[in-house]
C-alpha cells in the first residue's frame, strides 16, 4: 500500500500519517519527489482502513499496488517522471547526453574530455573516481583526488557531475562532490549501497546488472526509492549473453519495457554495451530511436593511453557525428536535446 500526499501537505501532515501507521505495527517509508510525497507501507496493511487514511489532512490518495516495485511503478505514478540533475532534465520530453572519461586520470585529461563532451552537446559530465574492476590489479580510480578534479572541472565548464560510488561507507564523501550518484552494474544488488544512496539526497543513476532481469532492476530501484529518493534514472548498459562479438549485448527492448512498467527515466550506455568505438554511434542512434531519455558515452582525448576502457571511448573525429545525432534524431520522436535550465 502507498499513501500519496498532495502538494499542499505539510511535514506535520506526513508525520501524522507515519505515527498512525506505526501505531498499527506497520513500517512507513517516506519518499519525496519534486511534486509530491509518497508514504510506502510495509507489513500487515490489511488492518488499516483506506477510507480513514484518505480522510486525513494532506492525503491525496491511498493505493494498493500489485507490482512488487510499488514506489517506482506506473501503477503508483501513471505519468512518466523527469529527474533534474544540476538543472539539467532527464525525462520523457528530452534526450540528454551525458559524456566524459570512463576514469578520471589527471586534471588536464578530464578537462579535455569535458570540452569534447560539450562540443558534442553533453549537458552532464561523467567521470569515474572510484572504479570497480574485474581484476584487482587494474586501475581502481583516484578516489577523493579524482572527485576534487571533477569538482574543479565542473567549476571550469559548468557541467554537473555524474560519478560512481562503490561502497556504502563512501556515499557521504562522494555526495559532497557529485551532482548525481551512479550505482554500477556490479553493485545493482548491493542492497546496503542502494539504501545508502537512497538516503543521500542526490539523484541516482542505477545501471542494470549484467545478468539482471528487468524486474530485478526495478526492485533494486525500489530499494533506493524506499529510503526517500524518487529521483532515480535507470540505465540499460548491455547484458551478458552467449555472444562474444560485443562486450555486452545491448537490450534495446528493455527501454520501452522499463518505461511501460516504471515512471522512472530510462537511458542507455552504448559505450559499455558495445565495447568498441565503431559500435558506439550506431548504438546511440538505436537508443534514441527506441525512445531512450538519454545516453551516457565515454570520450577521451587520448584513448590509446587511457587507464580504463580506451577502446570504447570516442575521439575528436567522432564528435561531429555524435552532435548531429543528438540534434537530428530527437525531434523525429517529438523530443528535444536537453539543455540546462536557468537556475
UniProtKB/TrEMBL annotation:
DAHP synthetase I/KDSA domain span: 87-329
Enzyme Commission number(s) of this protein: 2.5.1.54
Provenance organism: Nonomuraea coxensis DSM 45129
NCBIfam families with a match to the protein in the record: DAHP_synth_Bsub, PRK08673.1, PRK12595.1
Domain DAHP synthase ferredoxin-like: 1-66
Keyword field: Transferase
Name listed for the protein in its UniProt record: Phospho-2-dehydro-3-deoxyheptonate aldolase
Chain's gene name: aroF1
Molecular functions per Gene Ontology: 3-deoxy-7-phosphoheptulonate synthase activity
InterPro entries linked to this entry: Aldolase_TIM, Class-I_DAHP_synthase, DAHP1/KDSA, DAHP_snth_FXD, DAHP_syn_2
